[in-house]
Description:
The chain is of the alpha+beta class. The protein has helices at residues 3-10, 19-29, 48-53, 58-61, 66-69, 86-93, 137-172, 181-211, 224-233, 236-241, 271-287, 346-356, 382-399; strands spanning 33-37, 43-46, 71-73, 97-106, 111-121, 129-135, 220-223, 245-250, 266-269, 294-302, 305-312, 360-365, 371-380. Helix 11 runs antiparallel to helix 12.
Amino acid sequence: MSLFKRQTTSVPATPVAPQSSLAELALINIHDGVIILDRNGKIQYLNPAAATMLETKAADAVSLDFGLLLKVESIEDAPLPDDKNLLLRAIRDGQPLENYKVCFVIGRASKRIPVSVSLVPVNDQNGSRIITFRNIAKELAEEGEQAEFVSTASHEMRTPVASIEGYLSLALNPQTATIDERARSYLDAAHAAAKHLGQLFHDLLDVTKLDDGHLRPNLQPVEMVGLVKQIADQYYPQINAANLKYQFGSAESGINTARRLDQVVYGYVDTGFIGEIIDNLVGNAIKYTPAGGSIYVNVRGDGDHILINVTDTGLGISGDDLPHIFQKFYRSDNSDTRTIGGTGLGLYIVKKRVEAMGGRVWAESAFGEGSTFYVSLPRISGEEYEKRMINNNKVQGGTQ
Ligand code: ADP
């Protein structure tokens, strides 16, 4: 005899609403927005929370195309091309989607509402797609406060480490201190560890901010060939000191073919982010390429994308390691790389920064045969570049 059966018979019968009105009651009263679309993306239903959040009336919205009700943009206000827009893709293909963070942009005033949105496809005759979403403005603000705290704490920790590093440098410098050979070897090890710790604090701080979504890109219209060349060229002395060759080029296609330095490719990027990305990729190319090798940096236009590549003729990455190198703390472990210092956070930071600007990063490599790291970013036309420059100047002029 089942426990449930006994229970149901002993509980006095209470009047229960029919199932459909209970479901309706839930839809009317929950705080999350619910929109039901048909397979063509037409709105079939909008609950009151969705209507309130999107500042519309359910009756006006029903039968409209979803795309006419609102626009979907990235949280960071970065370009979100249709092929990168997972919500539009899920609606089109009827694929499930969970907790995707984007901005809904509504009305003539283009009001931005940050939301976490999910989609569940239903196998009914309309091919319904149930979209649920909630406003995450408060969460984002709280994350910002947390990141602020971590940044202050991390700054406090980095200061004493920098001072330890400084004093160890003084102790190791024959002009400022006299030490015997055994003490030198101990202090050398302590100095290397202090430097590693300093780098770890720096990278951890970056990762915390990136994970919190706190490090938002400050996007600007920029000519990319000039920008990347200017950043990469700064590494020339370091590359030279490591006894490596360096070449910068730009072309419409191919790495070593038709190299043209006069190509103009426009992007809408954060120049600080680009600096960190090139810093990590060129820094790795120097670290993992033995003397006598070469490093090539290229920028080229590739349809509606900008393709940057950093290529080296160094140690290369094995097929086992390649799928993991962009993960947090991942370092390939072999006799060649074991002796080279690092935190395993550089490529994770690169990936996060590239993605925050609406781009993609990947690597092609084989063990012992060098590596090429590709960064692909959305490209803007010359016309759009001019337009955004004028807007930027207006904003700057207005704040002066
Ligand atoms: P690390 O601080 O260890 O360099 P990264 O996240 O920058 O951390 O890189 C992760 C791992 O990827 C490295 O430990 C190294 O094994 C591999 N790697 C990165 N760049 C290169 C490169 N240019 N050539 C060979 N291996 C590389």
